[in-house]
Amino acid sequence: MTRALVLLMVIAAVSLQQAKVAPVVVIVRAPSIVYDDESIVIQVRVDPRTEHRLLVVGAWEGDTSLRTSLEQLDGEDSPRTRWVRWSRLAAGDLELRAYVFGEGGQLGMARQKLQVLARWQ
């Protein structure tokens, strides 16, 4: 009984490994609160894969894009970590978004909230 159970588990694991498509991982790291007169450095991590061709990083307030940065990716030869630096974002409750695109369209996305405070009123 134990051997049959172990054999069944091994077969299931091998089947899952073969059928499994690795997900696109996009991670955005940035402070959650900054002042409007400061620079912000955003770390974006994208796994290097052949199908990854374009990285778009943006700061959004609702449906309005305030800043956007585009970078071509070289597939498997791309560095895993990218850095985006912006100065003087407008005060407000923003959302940082990072998108990865391939030939077939969007492959992955990550979001992070960002509160930009006005230092001088």
Explain the overall architecture.
This protein has 121 residues and is mainly beta. The protein has one domain (24-117): Sandwich (Immunoglobulin-like), CATH 2.60.40.10. 15% of the residues lie in helices and 52% in strands. The chain contains 1 helix and 8 strands; from the N terminus they run H-E-E-E-E-E-E-E-E. It has one helix at 2-19, and strands spanning 26-29, 33-35, 39-46, 54-61, 64-72, 81-87, 92-102, 105-117. The strands form 2 sheets. The protein has a 5-stranded mixed β-sheet with strand order 2-8-7-4-5, with no helix packed on it. Strands 1-3-6 form a 3-stranded antiparallel β-sheet, with no helix packed on it. A hairpin with a 2-residue loop joins strand 4 and strand 5. The radius of gyration is 20 Å and the shape is elongated. The chain starts with a helix and ends with a strand.
Short description:
With 121 residues, the protein is mainly beta. The chain is built from one helix and eight strands.
Average pLDDT, rounded to a whole number, is 81
- Compute the separation of the termini in Å: 74 Å
Largest β sheet strand count, sense and barrel closure: 5 strands, mixed
The global form is: elongated
CATH topology value: Immunoglobulin-like
